[in-house]
Amino acid sequence: MCQPGQCATATHNSPIASATTPSTVTPTQPAASPACLYLNLGWPIAQPGASIDVTYRFGSTQEGRREPHHGVEIPSHAGTPVVAPAEGRVEFAGEDRSVQLGPYTGFYGNVIVLALEPLPADGPVFLLFGHLSQIDVHTGQRVGAGESLGRVGSSGVAIGAHLHFEVRAGANRYDSVSNPDLWLVPQQEDGGAAGVLAGRVVTRSGDLAHGQQVTVRRLDEGTNGPRTFFLDTYDFEADTPGSDSLLHENFVLSGLPPGDYEVAAFSPSLRHQRVHVAAGVIAWVTLEPGETPPPCAR
Fold first, then answer.
1. pTM of the complete model beyond 0.90
2. Which are the contacts of 86, defined by CB distance < 8 A and separation ≥ 6?
3. Domain 54-182 belongs to what architecture?
4. N or C: which end of the chain has fewer CB within 10 A?
């Protein structure tokens, strides 16, 4: 499991025949690093109820109707303040009409790229904020966590007002993205404590499954909120790995209330596991036998 602000420890649950029987949990000891950032970024929309649009998650294509999503959308009204999730230096601030930050120029409209500082030990990390209506910072400016960056808008290629948010690990490139759900402090829509579920769905040949539906069912009785969640494994272009360089995951589900869950997918036959999700940590699951847990560290 991954503790916020610390190097993460993943847990691995072996496949089981019945969801009512918990499998063993084997923790792994990660390499020490002072620059661990998993689940440690503040939300760029610092308002109660901020959440990620689940209809177009990171790495998804809305069943092939849209291009693979290199970030996440945070629905917000036009003019909503956008703040820095962490301390950093503004790498870029302005319109992207003459600078290609996405698949083509003009894609993000008014956009800010923030380079995190101090520099993480295992390479630079950049945060991108797209489709803004207003920019309050300039290139080269240093900002602290929580400081204003701009305002939500619908500039560039956008369907309605929202914040497009990306994490770019290693380089400020469109193909160097990492799932923001691994980085943002997890929270429920009502502000309650939450955990994160991450893992792999693996094919019979040992490859990561692309565009495979994963079903996550909450097992706790007498609790409020959704009991079943649906998401797809990443379905990126061939030149965009999408997976974290240490985790090698192909799905992440954040904002989960603490409790027990059953995770299921076809890979190619039905696989399902039971896993416990705790607040403020990442629970790990692999839907394929014989897999070992990742050295989860940042």
1. no
2. 40, 41, 42, 116, 127, 145
3. Distorted Sandwich (2.70)
4. N
